[in-house]
Write a structure and sequence with these properties.
The structure holds 2 protein chains of 2 kinds.
Chain A lengths: L11 H14 L5 H11 L5 H13 L4 H44 L3 H26 L6 H16 L4 H19 L1
Helix pairs in contact in A: 1-4, 3-4, 6-7
Chain B lengths: L2 H16 L8 H10 L5 H13 L7 H40 L3 H29 L3 H16 L4 H13 L4
Helix pairs in contact in B: 1-4, 3-5, 6-7
Classes of the chains: A mainly alpha, B mainly alpha.
Chain lengths: ~180, ~170
Amino acid sequence: MEPAASPPPPTLGALLFNFFTVGILGFGGVLPLARRMIVEQRRWLSAAEFTDLLALCQFLPGANIVNLSISLGARYHGVPGALAAVGGLLAAPVAVVIGLGVLYGRYAAIPMVAHGFQGLAAAASGLVLATALRIASPLRGKPRALAIAALAFVALALLRLPLLPVLLVLAPLSFAVNRRAA
Amino acid sequence: MSGPLGELAILFSELSLLAVGGANALVPEMQRLVQAHGWMQPAEFAALFALAQAAPGPNMLVVTLVGWRVAGLSGALAATGAFVVPTGILTYGVARLWHRFRDAPWRRAIQAALTPVTVGLVMAAAVLLCWSAALDLPLLLLAAAVAGVMLTTKLHPLWLLAAGGALGAAGLL
């Protein structure tokens, strides 16, 4: 069991600093680090409160972890709190990725570097493939849900249709199919 | 607003509002749009996506890199800001109401309906990235091997990215 949350509200500086640390250390996914910082180390939220807040952030559009930092910062200090949290979270990663982009732009013409980037890109596509298979696994044994997923896949990957009409058709369809199944 | 900065800001604020399954679900749409704007080809987009994966932080950083590639530092900041602000405002507003509705049946029904759509989106992202990045058989095998290792071990993804880059640079792919 997690220790009960006994949150003395964090200051703006604490929001900025803690989210900055999570951002700069978050190689290959920020969520586990953010959860450890918020629930276990700083005890700003209990485990159940964190799960509830994460559900909101997954429900709303946008990057989940960005939404999480904004809603947590807003809870304590309104707009300044939201800005401190999201600014802290993004500052280091944005700087690092721009640095990588500069290096790429400067050295991409060198054959060895170009081949290295080809390998990197292929490996990155493999990572996304693994993620896709992992999030698909709860759909096993649910033919209706799998059919919706397959329709989304065909529309976007094979037919190359724009995302908005695909969402506008498939989300209500999925809702209706689910409702009939329930 | 006009010019590339304005185009970036409008494009990524619209995109962010469609990101119902996290940033990776947007990859097919992003790839389609950057090509339609004449900014880059799918192979370059795949390379930028890989760079973003290699950096620390949230997995939305490909947005920053597309902005940087199109309009330099101001492009990077415009694209990042445009991607974060509209959904941030939405989250800010909704977070206050959320607690009240957390057990509402309609809330769960909507979330359950979105899950299969998200699975399809991320699967499409994976296949499009593989098509753009795995240009020949060795690269395709590498992508498949990385996916396999990710699914069967707890190895940190950064090692797999590093291995892919090293194998490529060594001329083994």
